[in-house]
Design brief:
The protein is of the alpha/beta class. Helix content is 41%, strand content 14%. The protein starts with 19 loop residues before the first helix and ends with a helix. It binds pyridoxal-5'-phosphate. Pyridoxal-5'-phosphate binds at residues 44, 105-107, 131, 177, 181, 209, 211, 240, 242, 248, 253.
Length: 408
């Protein structure tokens, strides 16, 4: 009798893949081990220290022995502070008792929402280019990915008519990320209003990834999906502290939702992580809304805004590049194909020849985005300038090489 291959993963993993950011990061580690100094525009990892108020409060919590299990939903004092933050960000009230779960960062919010509500065979719509967790977790839920490709000529805005055409009787969920990783786009309010209408009409659940909601520029106003008519009850919001307070290693985030969704979301969260580390929750509860901590978060956003301006100034020196000016998050998605090579090759040469890491667009949305690279401006201004100078010089070099080839 033929034996099972015990090393073969479960069928639900068949289409899953590792994140392209991880692939680049591993190569960056190798290069660094060889003694190369790499400017990292690859990872979406804020470079600031976590606000001191949060660090101090967490150390205090450890000393006060907040080292045991917390309530599965999270410490009530933290849920109360999150409720205040939500009200400040969105002007909407979420009940700390019934409508908030503290999670292990933004990544868990996506997992919980998809595992709690997608059945095998359901269709879930994503807009690409996109954060890769959505696609992989849809696969793990046994559901089907419906990919709507956003177009650069549209400024990567959603086309509501196309959305309408792609909905079928099997469509259960729509996933939206605003502001968007990797395009840096903040969706226009009138576009979101149309999307909301369509979701209500077709009775869809929306998972709204709002992890960059506080990082917006040019006075752009962020508007939550949950705030449109008929949307609060069908929108699960994922948010967290990784980007807001530069806390990627702490692994803490939160879900906001209608209380009727609590049971399903809590089942997934509970059997996945039990609870987020209690001392971290206590530290955040004590410090996250202190004026000095809020001010530090605001300063981070102002710093990103300055870096964004620098990045755009350099990109504008290269007539062969096209890009949509980022209005939120800390990414810019650049079409480099005008130089004569695609994003895969540009990203490879940039890293290997000029010590600057970036993410090829193909990793964030497949073949349709192979002309693009994603740059994250999460390093200090000096490094941003140095890295951008390398990009400008590489573009000029590639253009010159291609001219020579044509002339031959
Ligand atoms: C769009 C988006 N959602 C969620 C996350 C997950 O963040 P976290 O580190 O909080 O898990 C990221 C991280 O880069 C992201 O870009």
């Amino acid at each position: 009798m033929e034996q099972n291959n015990i090393f073969q993963g479960a069928d639900r993993l068949e289409h899953c893949y590792f994140s392209p950011v991880r692939v680049v990061s591993e190569r960056v580690f190798e290069l660094q081990e060889q003694g190369r100094e790499i400017i990292n525009f690859g990872e979406g990892e804020p470079d600031f220290d976590t606000p001191k108020g949060i660090v101090d409060a967490t150390i205090r919590a450890l000393n006060e022995k907040y080292t045991h299990y917390a309530n599965n939903r999270g410490l009530i004092e933290l849920r109360r502070e999150i409720s205040k933050l939500a009200e400040e960000m969105m002007g909407m009230y979420y009940s700390p008792e019934e409508e908030i779960i503290v999670t292990s960062a933004g990544a868990e919010t996506i997992n919980d929402a998809l595992m709690a509500f997608l059945n095998p065979g359901d269709e879930a719509i994503i807009f690409t280019p996109a954060f890769f967790n959505y696609e992989n977790l849809i696969y793990m839920a046994g559901a089907k990915v419906i990919n709507i490709r956003l177009k650069s000529e549209n400024g990567f805005q959603i086309d509501p008519e196309e959305l309408r055409r792609r909905i079928t009787p099997r469509t259960k969920m729509l996933i939206i990320n605003n502001p968007c990783n990797p395009t840096g786009v903040v969706y226009k309010e009138e576009v979101l209003a149309e999307v909301a209408k369509i979701c209500v009409e077709h009775n869809l659940i929306v998972f709204s990834d709002e992890i960059y909601s506080k990082i917006v520029y040019n006075g752009r106003k962020f508007r939550s999906m949950a705030s449109f008519p008929g949307m609060r009850e069908r929108t699960i919001i994922g948010n967290g502290f990784s980007k807001l307070y530069s806390m990627t290693g702490w692994r803490v985030g939160f879900l906001l939702f209608d209380k009727r969704m609590m049971n399903s979301l809590l089942l997934v969260h509970h059997y996945c992580v039990t609870c987020t580390p209690t001392f971290i929750q206590k530290g955040l509860a004590d410090a996250m809304n202190l004026p000095e901590v809020v001010a530090e978060g605001q300063k981070m956003v102002e710093t990103y805004a300055r870096r964004r301006d620098i990045v755009c100034r350099y990109l504008d020196q290269v007539p062969e590049f096209t890009y949509a000016q980022p209005e939120g998050a800390f990414y810019v998605f650049v079409n480099v194909s005008g130089t004569g090579i695609d994003g895969d090759e540009f990203s490879r040469r940039l890293r290997e020849e000029r010590n600057v890491a970036s993410i090829p667009g193909s990793g964030l949305g497949g073949e349709d985005y192979k002309d693009f690279i994603r740059l994250s401006f999460v390093t200090d201004e000096e490094n941003v300038k140095k890295g951008m100078q390398q990009i400008v010089e590489l573009a000029a070099e590639v253009v010159a090489e291609n001219k020579k080839k044509v002339a031959c």
